[in-house]
């Protein structure tokens, strides 16, 4: 029974695509406000309210993908037992199950299949900003997500139901782990077990932290919750080890994936700007957001800034600019980027890395205390340099080649 009953750890904003009610998702992509009530042979029974009255339907199992309860729990229909009697018991258990009361929202990422755990602080039609369970600020574009489970029982599908089911199956163990509090091990029990470790294991444990110090700064993917947890080694350059390794290249599929990831990095950057400029957030929250933004950029990256009230262009280090942004003299402000696109596609350079250039139209608006009167606004076309940097990651004893997506200098486009 456990194989098909997964607890949806389901906070967020009230938008039309969020549901906190009984719902059925069908194989044709449709959603219906209904209830899974039974199993008979190769079919399942669905109860739907039509004009205030219940209507009953029997559908083949393969035509029904997902059932959600009104408190956020869900059941994957193709995981039901093939025996109708046992399937009925599983459905009854699902309907009678107790509601979960999680501490965090869960965001299921599509590629690679991963579950991000945190508290959603801001959400728009494009991005989700959240605070991770560890307190770090994070941001992700909704194009990268399959489904969001909110703490209050709502859910939001961001991909077709069939794809969501596949990803829920792939992340099942991770969802269960995040839904279940970690057991507390008494100190005495730990103390008794420690001497039993083989001497060789103890030596390895001591050496591991030393390896991690060799990991290059800013060569891990920018997503704060999915960074590799093992030491990574940069790809040797031709200058230092000319015969060590051939220059890595992206496949066509990888190229498209990382091309899209770079656009998403710009979206993340803009989302963080709005967090940092938000007067309702604490300095601590803003500082954590600044730390995350810095990780999106190359170490020496700068940003050009102009103002309608002050002639000329000023250049700041990224962190200095963000620190100044915290202190904008407006009760509230918004920073929007539109028309984000490549003007120079990613191309591989002699050093083996890929470089490109993205532009976008930035609109900054500062408001008075009433939140309506505009005190200042300007529109500037910005350019963002992008770098794909190769690095190697060790996982399960195997070395894997990966690419970090890093942003570079941000300039002002002069026409």
Can you describe this structure in just a few lines?
With 415 residues, the protein is of the alpha+beta class. The chain has helices spanning 84-96, 161-170, 172-179, 187-193, 199-212, 252-276, 283-296, 318-325; strands at 5-6, 23-26, 31-32, 34-40, 43-50, 53-60, 64-68, 74-76, 105-109, 114-123, 127-132, 137-141, 145-149, 155-157, 232-234, 302-307, 310-317, 332-348, 354-367, 374-395, 398-412. It is built from eight helices and 21 strands.
Walk me through the structure.
- The protein is of the alpha+beta class.
- Helix 6 (252-276) runs antiparallel to helix 7 (283-296) and helix 7 runs antiparallel to helix 8.
- The chain has eight helices and 21 strands.
- The strands form five sheets. The protein has a six-stranded antiparallel sheet with strand order 12-11-10-9-13-14.
- The longest helix is centred in the middle third of the chain and has 25 residues, at 252-276.
- Mean pLDDT is 78; it is low at 1-17 and 181-244.
- Keywords: Signal.
- Residues 221-245 have a biased composition (Low complexity).
- It comes from Spirosoma telluris.
